[in-house]
Amino acid sequence: MGNREDIALLGHLMRRAGFGATYAELAERAAAGYEAAVEDLLNPERFEPVDADVLYRFLPGYEGALGPPLNQAEWIYRMINTRRPLEEKMALFWHQLFATGNSKVDNPPELTQQIDMFRQYGLGSFRELLVQLAQNPAMIFWLDNNGNHLGAINENWGRELLELFSMGVGNYSEDDIKEASRAFTGWTVGPKIPRNPLGRFYWNFEYRPEDHDDGPKTFLGHTGNFNGQDIIDIVVNQPATARFLARHLYNFFVADEPQVPSWNITPPNDPDAIDRLVAAYDESNGDVRAMLRTLFNSDFFKQARFSRVKSPAELVIGTARMAGHFAGPRPGFNSLAFECAYQGQELLNPPSVESWHTGAEWIDGGALVRRVNFAAGILGDTALPGVSAIVISIRARGALSPDEFVDACLELVGPLEIGANTRAELLDQARSDGELRWDDAAADSEKRVGLMLALIAASRDFQFA
Amino acid sequence: MATTTKDPVVVVLQMTGANDYLNTIIPYTNPHYHDARPRVGIPEDQALPISDELAFNPNMGPIKKLWDDGKVAIIHGIGYENSPRSHFRSMDIWHTCEPDIVGTEGWAGRVIRDLDPRGENVLKGVNFGQGLPRALALRGVPITSVSSLESYGVLSSVPGVAAADERNKILDRFARMYSPTIGAGPTMDYLGQTGRDALQGADILRAAPEGYTSTVEYAETPIAKYLRDIAQVYLADLGTQIFYTQHGSFDSHFNQPPMHTKLWIDMSRAISDFFDDLAEHDAGDNLIMVLFTEFGRRVKDNGTGTDHGAGGAAFVIGNQVKGGHYSSYPSLRPEDLTQGDLEPNYDFRGLYSTVIERWLGLDPVPIVGGNFEQLSFV
Question: How many DSSP H helices and E strands does chain A contain?
Answer without folding.
Answer: 24, 4
